From TrEMBL:
Species name: Cuscuta campestris
Protein name, as recorded: Phosphoinositide phospholipase C
Keyword Cell membrane: yes
Localisation: Cell membrane
Pfam family, any one: EF-hand_like
Lipid bilayer topology: Peripheral membrane protein
PANTHER family, alphabetized: PHOSPHOINOSITIDE PHOSPHOLIPASE C, PHOSPHOINOSITIDE-SPECIFIC PHOSPHOLIPASE C FAMILY PROTEIN
GO cellular component terms, semicolon-separated: plasma membrane
BP terms from Gene Ontology: lipid catabolic process; phosphatidylinositol-mediated signaling; release of sequestered calcium ion into cytosol; response to stress
Cofactor: Ca(2+)
Length: 598
C-alpha cells in the first residue's frame, strides 16, 4: 500500500520526462550526433536530420531555425542542443511532426483526378431522424478542411422561401441564406482550394431562380472578402458589377466541359453541383411525361441486375429527372451549376457517358457494392474524367458511416461521410485527409488514372510487397495535463498500452497488435516496441494508432487515437499527436514513435 501511495504522490511532481530519462535509443542517437561536451551543434543537428531523419531537403538554415525555436522555449544558453532540449524537440509536433505538413501533391491535374474531403447532410448536428439542423456542423467541417458541403433544398411551408432540411424526417429546418452566409465566412479558412456545394434540390422553378440570386449575392461578398477587401469601402455594387464579380468568385463555365479544371486553377472558387433544372410549361407544369415510367423501369432493371431489396428512396425518386439539355425555364439557376449531377439508372450501360460534358454520378454505399462486383473496371474508367459521389445508406439513422476504401479503390472522388459521429470509419476518413497538408484534395494513385488492369484493386494479393513499414513506439506523455487525475483510475495512475494496425486493400489489412501495458504511469515508456507491416498497395494504406488504459474490472478506457496515411509518413523519430473520439486534437497528449521503410 505504501508503494502505491508513493507512486500517486510522485505523479504530481512532474509529468514530463527529463532527457536523461529518455528511452535508451534516443540517448544513444543523441550521443552519436553530439560533441564530447554533450552538445549537438547546428552542423551536427543538420547531419542528424539528413542521415537519421532522411530529410534530404534540410539545410543549415533549417537546423538553425530549430535551434532558435527550441532555445526560445527553454532556459539553456549553449550554442547547441543538450539532451533535454533534443528530447523536447523530438516531442514537439510543430517542429517534428510525423506527417508532411505542406501541400506537395501535383495540384494541376483535372479535378476528377483527386479524392475530395466530402460531407453528407452537412447541416445535421446528430442523427438523421430528429436532430437539429444548424450552421455549426457546416462551420466545423470547413475548419477541418472539408471541401464538399451538402445542402438539401426544400420550399418552406408558404412556398415562398428556401429552407435546408432532411426531408420527410423530424429534423429541424434552417434557412438557406443562413447556411450560405456561414459558408461565406469559413469557406477558405482551412484550405484555399475550391469549395464544392452539392444541392439536393426539391424546388420548383421560381425558387430555383431565387437560389441563384442568393448564391450570386453571397458569392459577391465572399469574393470581396477573399481578394478585394478594398472594395468594401466603395459604393454599393450595381447589378452589372455583381455579375462581373460573381463570375470571378463562382466558377460558372460558359459551356459544357469535357475536362474539369485543376484545383490549383480554382483556388478561392466556389463550385455548385446539382441536377439541372427540369423543364416547366408556362403554367408551371412539369414537362417530363416519360420520367415516371423511366424511373420505374430503371428501378426494376437495377433490382433485377443487382438483387437489391433496399434501394435508396433518394435514387428512386430522382431517377431520370436529372436530365437533359435545353431546360431553359430557370436559366439563372442553370448558369450557376458547374458540375451536372445524375443518378445511376440500371446497369453499367446507363453510366452517364456524356462525351460532351463532365458529370457527377451519385449512388449509395449499397449500390456501389453491387456495381463494383460486376462493373468495377468500367467505374474506374468513368471516374478518370467524371465524378462519383457515394453516400451512406438510408438505414444509418444514427449518422454512422461505412468503409470508405470501397469507394476510394474504385476512383470515387466524393466519398460522403456524416461528420458528426465518432466511430472508426470517420477516424479513417479524417486520417486520410491529413495528407497533402490537410488541404482536402489528394491526388489519386497512378493505377486509378491509367489504362492498366488495376491489379492493385482487383488482384492485390497477387502483387509483390512494395515496401515494409517498421513502426517503433517509444513513449507517450500529456495525459495528466489533458485528463483529470482520476479519469482513468481513482486511486492510481493509469496502466497504458498502445495498439497499432493497418487498414487498406484486403491483403494489407492487419489485426491490431499491441505493446505490453505499463503499470501506474502517466509517462509510459515502451522502449521502442517494433511492429512490421509488409504492404502491397501503400498508396491506400493507413496506420491506426490508439492508446488505452487497462481496466481488469471491465472495458479498457480510451486514451487517444490517430490515423496516419502511410504514404505521408516521415522516417526517423517522430512526434505523433493524439486525438479524442471525435477527431479533436488533444492539447498535450502525444506519442514518440519511429518510422522506417525497408
Amino acid at each position: 500500500m505504501s508503494h502505491q501511495r508513493f507512486r500517486l504522490c510522485c505523479c504530481f511532481l512532474g509529468f514530463k520526462l527529463r532527457g536523461e530519462e529518455a528511452p535508451e535509443q534516443i540517448r544513444s542517437v543523441f550521443e552519436n550526433y553530439s560533441d564530447e561536451n554533450g552538445i549537438m551543434t547546428a552542423d551536427n543537428l543538420l547531419k542528424f536530420l539528413k542521415e537519421f531523419q532522411k530529410e534530404n531537403e534540410a539545410t543549415i538554415e533549417t537546423a538553425e531555425k530549430i535551434l532558435r525555436e527550441v532555445k526560445r522555449l527553454n532556459h539553456f544558453h549553449h550554442k547547441g542542443l543538450v539532451i533535454d532540449e533534443f528530447f523536447r524537440y523530438l516531442l514537439n509536433d510543430d517542429l517534428n511532426n510525423a506527417l508532411k505538413t505542406t501541400v506537395h501533391h501535383d495540384m494541376n491535374a483535372p479535378l476528377a483526378h483527386y479524392f475530395i474531403f466530402t460531407g453528407h447532410n452537412s447541416y445535421l448536428t446528430g442523427n438523421q431522424i430528429c436532430s437539429k439542423s444548424s450552421v455549426d456542423p457546416i462551420v466545423k467541417a470547413l475548419k477541418r478542411g472539408v471541401r464538399v458541403i451538402e445542402l438539401d433544398l426544400w420550399p418552406n411551408s408558404k412556398m415562398n422561401d428556401i429552407i435546408v432540411w432532411h426531408g420527410g424526417t423530424f429534423t429541424s429546418k434552417v434557412k438557406l441564406i443562413k447556411c450560405l452566409k456561414a459558408i461565406k465566412n469559413f469557406a477558405f479558412v482551412a484550405s484555399a482550394y475550391p469549395l464544392i456545394i452539392t444541392f439536393e434540390d426539391h424546388l420548383k422553378a421560381d425558387l430555383q431562380a431565387q437560389v441563384a440570386k442568393v448564391v450570386v449575392l453571397v458569392a459577391v461578398v465572399v469574393r470581396v472578402r477573399f481578394n478585394f477587401k478594398r472594395i468594401m469601402s466603395e459604393e454599393p455594387l450595381n447589378v452589372q458589377m455583381v455579375k462581373q464579380i460573381f463570375q470571378e468568385m463562382l466558377f460558372c463555365p460558359e459551356s459544357d466541359l469535357t475536362e474539369f479544371p485543376s484545383p490549383e486553377s480554382l483556388k478561392g472558387r466556389i463550385v455548385i453541383s446539382t441536377k439541372l433544372p427540369r423543364k416547366y410549361s408556362k403554367s408551371g407544369t412539369l414537362i417530363e411525361p416519360h420520367t415516371i415510367n423511366e424511373t420505374i423501369s430503371s428501378r426494376n432493371e437495377l433490382l433485377s441486375i443487382h438483387g437489391s431489396q433496399h434501394l435508396q428512396a433518394e435514387e428512386i425518386l430522382e431517377g431520370n429527372a436529372d436530365d437533359e439539355d435545353g431546360l431553359e425555364r430557370t436559366p439563372e439557376y442553370k448558369n450557376v451549376i458547374a458540375i451536372h449531377a445524375s443518378k445511376l439508372n440500371g446497369s453499367k450501360h446507363n453510366l452517364p457517358s456524356h462525351d460532351h460534358k463532365v458529370t457527377r454520378l451519385s449512388m449509395s454505399e449499397e449500390t456501389l457494392k453491387h456495381v463494383v462486383n460486376i462493373h468495377g473496371r468500367e467505374l474506374i474508367g468513368f471516374t478518370q474524367r467524371n465524378f462519383l459521389r457515394v453516400y451512406p445508406k438510408g438505414s444509418r439513422i444514427t449518422s454512422s458511416n461505412y468503409n470508405p476504401l470501397i469507394g476510394w479503390t474504385h476512383g470515387a472522388q466524393m466519398v460522403a461521410f456524416n461528420m458528426q459521429g465518432h466511430e472508426k470509419h470517420l477516424r479513417i476518413m479524417q486520417g486520410m485527409f491529413r495528407a497533402n497538408g490537410g488541404c482536402g484534395y489528394l491526388k489519386k494513385p497512378a493505377f486509378l488514372l491509367g489504362d492498366g488492369d488495376c491489379g492493385e484493386v482487383f488482384h492485390p494479393s497477387a502483387l509483390t510487397v512494395k515496401t515494409t513499414l517498421k513502426v517503433n513506439i517509444y513513449m507517450g506523455e500529456g495525459w495528466r495535463e489533458d485528463f483529470h487525475f482520476r479519469h482513468f483510475d481513482y486511486c492510481s495512475p493509469p496502466d497504458f498500452y498502445a495498439k497499432v494496425k493497418i487498414v487498406g486493400v484486403s491483403c494489407d489489412r492487419t489485426k491490431s497488435e499491441r505493446t505490453k501495458k505499463i503499470d501506474d504511469q502517466w509517462l509510459p515508456s515502451w522502449n521502442g516496441k517494433e511492429f512490421e507491416f509488409p504492404l502491397r498497395v501503400p498508396e491506400l494504406a493507413l496506420l491506426l494508432v490508439a492508446v488505452k488504459d487497462h481496466d481488469p474490472a471491465g472495458g479498457d478506457e480510451f486514451g487517444g487515437q490517430t490515423c496516419l496515411p502511410v504514404s505521408e509518413l516521415k522516417t526517423g523519430f517522430r512526434c505523433v499527436p493524439l486525438y479524442d473520439r471525435r477527431g479533436d486534437k488533444y492539447s498535450h497528449v502525444k506519442l514518440l514513435m519511429g518510422f522506417q521503410f525497408v
